[in-house]
What does this fold into?
Amino acid sequence: MIAKKMVKYVEGSSVTRAMFGEGKKMAKEFGPENVYDFSLGNPSVEPPKAVAEQMKAVLDEKKPNFVHGYMNNAGHEEVRHAIADSLNRKFGTSFSEKNIIMTVGAAGGLNVILKTLLDPGDEVIAFAPYFSEYNNYVGNFDGVMVPISANIPSFQPNLDEFREKITERTKAVIVNTPNNPTGVVYSEETIKELSRILEEKQKEIGHAVYLIADEPYRELAYDGVEVPYLTKYFSNTIVGYSYSKSLSLPGERIGYLVVPDEADDFENILDAATVATRILGFVNAPSLQQLTVARCLEEKTDISAYDQNRKLLYDKLTELGFECAKPEGAFYLWVKAKEEDDKAFVAKAKEFHLLLVPGSAFMCAGYVRIAYCVSPEMIKRSFGAFEKLAETYKNGN
Ligand code: PLP
It folds into this structure.
């Protein structure tokens, strides 16, 4: 018999992944060219050439007991050093290798930092709509998720409600910008105000509240929009970065955490996060991937393909009368459902072979997410289906 806690997780197993499975089934039935699967955020752009070249170069070096061996649980020192240097160059920060812990993607990093910070019953705030795995990650350590309702139509964080929901039990706040599922980038003004509120509330409640910046989409920002680097605004910020999207390496499971010297209790946090990396069973992030990304720090995937998709879809859907959040980053378009029940809207879209994810899977009913990390050809082929979907609602069906 499986654990009671797992029964709940299995039942609530990710809607997005269920939809992806459904897409595969439909492709077999109707032919892959007749199914428009916008369900999963799997990068469609190949990693930069340098990634494979550097991976081979690392293997060719044949340093004994190095590439394939155990190491410090925080990761290779030279890799952490290179990452710290690169961040300092980009953001004018002053990190060193001690501030960096290599992780098994953003998901691994979030679990490590939540294990490090949470006692049972501690509260973690997140702004709806948000990546639903946060609920599971916080649940892993018996924390309590406190969602803040969506701020419609800007989808910037709702800071009035935020202020009210911070209590003595609040231990952390997770922000994700550029955002999954909305594609919105939180403005500098928002970040400054959010930081001011946190400073004020920390004084009031008498302990640190950590801002966890979940940043797998940092490099995916369009039209020259700036994505503020949060450690510069609030000292108790911990950054979780991932190469899953920035280098199109989601299956390789590689990322890192940054814990700045300025963060309250930072030495204990670093020690505890290193131990958490070990005892969660990661032991360390994949060695070959660490050594590879350290040699590709200036590389980026070609985001022009996503940008082209973003424009194609946004223009077409707004022309058809769909209301979309302004897409500035990531590879998601967030669209108001044409009926109150987003799941019914998703079911209707499926009749036209359009696979979308309901907003309720991101704690924000009434909307749907369209992942446009797909081929532009598929987007163009899908236009007829979107036209039919829009037409259905015009006729009041
Ligand atoms: N956080 C957000 C907001 C995501 O969208 C994802 C993946 O899609 C993750 C974390 C997990 O990323 P990783 O593959 O690096 O674990």
Remarks:
- Residues 49-294 form a domain with the Aspartate Aminotransferase; domain 2 fold (CATH 3.40.640.10).
- The chain has a mean pLDDT of 96.
